[in-house]
Amino acid sequence: MTTSAAVTSNTPTVQELGLGSSLDVTSIVNALVQNAQIPQNQLANEVTTDQAQVSAYGQLSSALSTFQTSLTALQDPTTFQSLQVSVGNSSAASATVSTASGTGAPTAGTHTLSVSQLAQNQLVASGDFSSTSSAVGTGTITIQPGTWSNNNTTFTPNPNAAPQTITIGSNNSSLTGIVQAINASSAGVTASIINDGTGSRLVLSGNNTGSANGFSVSVANTGGSTTNGTGLSAIAYDPTASGGTPQTTLLQSSQDANFNVDGIAITSASNTASNAIQGISLNLQQVTTTPTTLTVSQSSAGANAAIQGFVTSYNMLQSTISSLTSYNASTSTAGPLNADPGVSVITRNLQNIVANIFSTSAPGIQTVGDLGLSFQETGSISLNQTTLDQALSSNPVAVGQLFETTGTASDSLVSYTGSTSATQPGNYALSISQLATQGSVTGSQAAGLTVTQGSNDKLALTIDGTSATVTIPPGTYASASALATAVQSAINATPAISASGNKVSVTNNNGTLSITDSQYGSKSSIAVTGGDGAANLLGSSPTSTAGLDVAGSLGGTAFVGKGQVATAASGSSAAGLSVTIAGGATGARGSVQFTQGIAAELNSSITNFLDPTNGVIANATNSVNKTISSLEAQEQTMQASVTALKANLEAEFTAMDQLVAGLNSTSQYLSQEFSSGSSSSTSSSSSSSSAVSLG
Hints:
Strand 19 (373-375) and strand 20 (381-383) form a beta hairpin. It contains 13 helices and 38 strands. The chain is of the alpha+beta class. The two termini are 46 Å apart. Helix content is 34%, strand content 27%. The strands form 11 sheets. Strands 1-16-3-12-13 form a 5-stranded antiparallel beta sheet, with no helix packed on it. The chain has a 5-stranded antiparallel beta sheet with strand order 21-38-23-33-34, with no helix packed on it. The chain has a 4-stranded antiparallel beta sheet with strand order 8-9-4-11, with helices on one face. Residues 1-15 and 687-695 have low confidence and may be disordered. The chain folds into 5 domains: 1-82 and 306-405 and 597-678, no CATH class; 83-119 and 257-298, no CATH class; 123-252, no CATH class; 408-436 and 550-595, no CATH class; 438-545, Immunoglobulin-like, CATH 2.60.40. 32% of the residues are buried.
């Protein structure tokens, strides 16, 4: 029992394995564990490979998205319909394609242009004042916009611009104070002080050019004459006033620009004319002595850049795909997506679309090969710039049709508006049963031409749901047409109406006014809701008429009308196809040809490939991720088994080592005992011999 206790007290720890047996037990256990880990390591390698595959799908997705972005310009019709304008005498005028809505599209061609007079604003200057701080006078200054006759003997007030009266008191009676008061008003002029070396002069400059934007300046001095040059009369300008000549000097008369396009005389209040030539904005700069040419021509710069960008992006995508699917035979190394079936589907689909034959308006432009694009053995695309330039020069519209989604109507008053991914290419018959109309209100009697401030100058309206009270400029108007112009300007300038984006036109029919909404459709309406001037302008019982939406069929199925826009209903092959019917007659209106080009089809395919739920890449990624999760679960199970195996081996070897140690201890003990017994026997024998001898 003592021996057993001694053995137990000397039991080795795990770190001391082999102390009893003298074996390298740690190495033996590690070798057995490593051998058991071989399947687990194989699973870990599979997980690493699959994770690389998921990363590769991410790279492919990013490359597809980048390529899809390059298709945007190719799907924009303006890319292939871009025009440029040049003027032979660039000193006379400059011209650009107008971006303003409603100006229409320009057409290529050459025009003659001559400029006989530039538009200018009115300028008047006072005499010299000794100091800008000395008092000039008190009273009122009234500035009235209008038109002067050629010799400035008559003045016609502008009915669309009310006179502005500015009060000058003792606190702002200096030249500086008067300038500040005028500039703080909305009189349509700008005041400034110019020092001519002998004194300071007040200069008034009209804010707008044009003959109708001249102005008169009349004053009312406090307790003094209004025309004798004293007090505020020193800054008056009104040659028609009785009692004296104006004290200010006319430096420049307001006048219109007079120019000629293709033999047609044109007058403009501004030197910038945006409607003289459809779709062209003119900026007149100098009077000409001889006509110059204005040329509108096709610009291929945008289309060229878009196609070059397409080729570059396609080749970058192809390079990414080649890298991900590569195989190096010398090293037996494969890319993460080598032989991946999903990538093969994507590659074949894109190549087939690019190489397809499309219908355009030009028989010689049906494929990308006609533009100088060709596939190389590597799968990339090369570009022959000379061939592309020739195609863009000969028929840019057909080149655009090769790439973009287009709709072409046979009726000139019908224009393609848009489509959706559900719209199928085809030729769709169009029939109109009802044209779109605008909401309006028409007076019940001829309008009164006199508008008195605070008496009958207010008109309350609700236009397309927006309510506002309009103030009509006071005055006695020369005609109902002049009054109509003033009412139209006042309505459109009212903040609540202009902020809503609404506009109206006001017309005169034998003295009776009609107010018509600029919008079309069932949401278009105008109602007179009050105002002290309503009866004077429109009579006691004006008639309101609501607008109507366009109605009819497209492709044999009733379309959805919204204003002038007709959209093919869902469920038909034309679903989502939209056209705008600008007018014309009811009945059959020809057809709309809808086509999808290379960029449109590529965009649609890539959208499907990148679909986060059902796309090729999403499905493949989800599948690999499931495999990774399964392998990682198996790996965890194996790790638990290996951990248990190691613990068991260490326990068994510990027990064995303890047993061997115990046996060694017993062996040593027995050896000692045997050795001790032999010594005792020898000693006894010697004693016996001695005893015998002595005896």
